[in-house]
Amino acid sequence: MAELTHPPFEGSAFFSYGFRPFFLSAALFAVVVVPAWLLILAGLLELSGPFAPVDWHIHEMLFGYGSAVLAGFLFTAVPSWTGRRPIRGRPLALLLDLWIMGRLAVAGVFPIGTVAVLLIDASFLIVVLALVSAEVIAGRNWRNLMVLIPVLAFLAANVIFHLEAQAQGVSDVGRRLGISVIVFLIMLIGGRIIPSFTRNWLSERGAVRMPVPFGRFDGFALFAGAAAQALWIVWPFAAATGAALLVTSAVHAIRMARWKGVKTLASPLLAMLHLAYAFIPLGLAGLGLTALTGAVPVATGLHLLGIGAVGGMTLAVMMRATLGHTGQALVAGPALTAAFVMVILAAMLRAAAGPTVVLGFSGTTLAALLWVAAFGLFLARLAPSLLRSAASQAA
Question: Which of 10, 106, 307, 314 is 20 to 30 A distant from 26 in Cα terms?
């Protein structure tokens, strides 16, 4: 896939399309925020922001890293939806500044109150919603307005997170709503792009059996996912919630089996998408067993979803989008393949962490090191592509 085609842009290539500043910033943030969390756990770093340490970690992985990836995806996808010129240049730079201000405010860098922190942090998603809505409406692309509903829910989750932390000292519903929205977006968008990319790849190789196209079963899977997660948001430890999560886990395992992922192993960049999606049924099953039996720690399901599904899928999508939109072959190569494997290993280690010790490191520490190494490899391989135009790379 070549660089997106629109009228020539005279400004910096870095601010020519949304994926460039936000994918780079998300990856840099991923490399910094996890070591900071380890320092906090070790008592070597203390932040003066509005959140308790665990809440800061959860918030910044969800609404710091997650919001940046979401913005990069939306500001790159919207021009293809609408046929309009992408948001670029100064508006994109100011939006990145707003995201950075949110990260600094939440970390307690500014001597301001909790309400001001909330306003600064929430304003990023508010502006993203406003800009994307305006573009979709101007392009009369009404069908894709539906994508904004989960984004609005994500904004609401962020606000609830702040309000709960202010009122009771710890987040509750906000954190579960936040991760549920991102997981649902993966169910929705991943359920469209994974079988589509797989079908195209298999067709080029003359395969006969193709992924099942989106149909009623997929609609049922999305409904089941939304319903089970809604129960989990409100009643996370109820038996009915556990049963619903286990059923939904099975539904999504069946759904992804219909996409012929086993046939994509020869294309690591494509197989990554299938493997990352597999962590959705795994994570839902983990949360279901927690609710039903109490024998599985809640952190197990959360990290299978948070690191495996969200981390794995966002990393794979950022790789594919960066390669495609900068005129490079859709081939992962050793570095990007290793990066994805590291994230998957990090998910598995962190989900089973407890007192586990591997190579002298706790499971938690080793998972964090793998996460940092993964995004470090992503940056080493693709940061130059994000910073420069396709033309300058070829020169």
Answer: 10
**Nearest 5°: CA angle at 155, between 109 and 287?**
100
pLDDT digits (tens, 9 = 90+) for 191-237: 999 999 999 999 998 888 899 989 999 999 999 999 999 999 999 99
* Predicted confidence (pLDDT) per residue in 64-108, tens digit: 999 999 999 999 998 888 888 888 999 999 999 999 999 999 999
Long-range pairs of 332-337 with CB within 8 A, sequence gap ≥ 24: 332/268, 332/269, 332/272, 333/381, 335/377, 335/380, 335/381, 336/268, 336/269, 336/377, 336/378, 336/381, 336/382, 337/268
pLDDT value at position 131?
A: 94
Is residue 350 within 8 A of residue 344, CB to CB? The reply is no
CB atoms within 10 A of CB 134: 12
Contact 387, 24 (CB under 8 A): yes
Model confidence at 269: pLDDT above 50: yes
Task: Tell me if the pTM is above 0.85.
Answer: yes
User: Which among 7, 145, 3 has a CA at the least distance from the CA of 85?
Assistant: 7
Which helix (H) or strand (E) is 201 found in, with range? Answer: helix 191-204
Within 8 A by CB and 6+ apart from 368, the residues are: 34, 35, 37, 38, 346, 350
What count of other Cβ atoms lies within 10 Å of the Cβ of residue 128? 25
Task: Report d(CA 166, CA 152) in Å as an integer.
Answer: 21
Query: What pLDDT, on a 0 to 100 scale, did the predictor assign at position 142?
Result: 75
Per-residue model confidence as pLDDT tens digits over 378-390: 999 999 999 986 5
* Beta bridge pairs of residue 362: 357
Q: Is 9 buried (19+), middle (13-18) or exposed (0-12) by CB count in 10 A?
A: middle
Alpha carbon of 186 to those of 100, 135, 235, 276, 348: distances in Å?
25, 23, 23, 10, 19
In this structure, the dihedral spanned by the alpha carbons of residues 128, 304, 344 and 14, taken in order and rounded to 10 degrees, is: 10
Alpha carbon distance 221, 250 (integer Å): 10
Residue 195: CB atoms within 10 A of its CB come to: 24
